[in-house]
Amino acid sequence: MRIISGELKGKKIELPKDKLTRPLRDMVKESIFNIILHSQIINFKLEDCIVLDLFSGSGSFGLECISRGVKHVHFYENYLGALEVLKKNIDNLKCKDQCTIIEKSCFELDKYFKKSANIIFLDPPFKEVKINQLLELILEKNFLDKDGIIIIHRKKNNHEDFLDKFKVLETRNYGVSKIIFGTRF
């Protein structure tokens, strides 16, 4: 897997050796950034953004954000196998100054994150069922900037009922994946 665009384009991203972490495919990642950069519904510049990458895994989404010029990425990951790879990727790409790693569960977000983010990316395991609980926490604690977006990566055939506060802007399907873009009402 590689960084697909920006300052770090072509640089390699390591992946965990086990199969417990599901990497975000390059085609899906590229499509997400095309929507962020060219959609009429999203209104901010990446260069000014703070990104919250929840269930970070190897960090491919957040590192792609850094390559494309975001200000800072907060990575949340608590699986040791993925954490080691995430740290190695940040070191290899020499972008420590733009990264914060929080080695905690995303469900404890309110204990460790005290800012708001322009982009919140949720890439939980497909079997994770407490997504609404996490969305509720994000919205209740104002972790999403008023013009920010939430991007959720789910399995295409999952049919979650998202909160009333969460406005789905767009949904795209790619193979077995579904990408949901949303914001607060």
Number of strands: 7
What is the CATH superfamily classification? Answer: Vaccinia Virus protein VP39
CATH topology: Rossmann fold
Provide the CATH architecture.
3-Layer(aba) Sandwich
Overall pLDDT level: 91
What would you call the quaternary organization?
single chain
Largest sheet: 7 strands, mixed
CATH class: Alpha Beta
Whole-number tally of structural domains: 1
**N/C terminus separation:** 36 Å
Q: Tell me the helix content.
A: 25-40%
Question: What is the gyration radius calculated from CA atoms?
Answer: 15 Å
Helix/strand structural class: alpha/beta
Strand order, main sheet: write it out. Answer: 3-2-1-4-5-7-6
Beta fraction of the residues? 25-35%
What can you tell me about this protein's structure?
With 185 residues, the chain is of the alpha/beta class. It has a single domain (26-184), classed as Rossmann fold, CATH 3.40.50. The protein is 26% helix and 26% strand. The protein has five helices and seven strands. It has a seven-stranded mixed sheet with strand order 3-2-1-4-5-7-6, with helices on both faces. Helix 5 links the parallel strand 4 and strand 5 (144-155). The radius of gyration is 15 Å and the shape is globular. The model has no long low-confidence stretch (mean pLDDT 91).
What can be said about this structure in brief?
With 185 residues, the protein is of the alpha/beta class. It is 26% helix and 26% strand.
Question: Which features would summarize this protein structure in a list?
Answer:
single chain, 185 residues, alpha/beta, Rossmann fold, seven-stranded mixed sheet, 5 helices, 7 strands
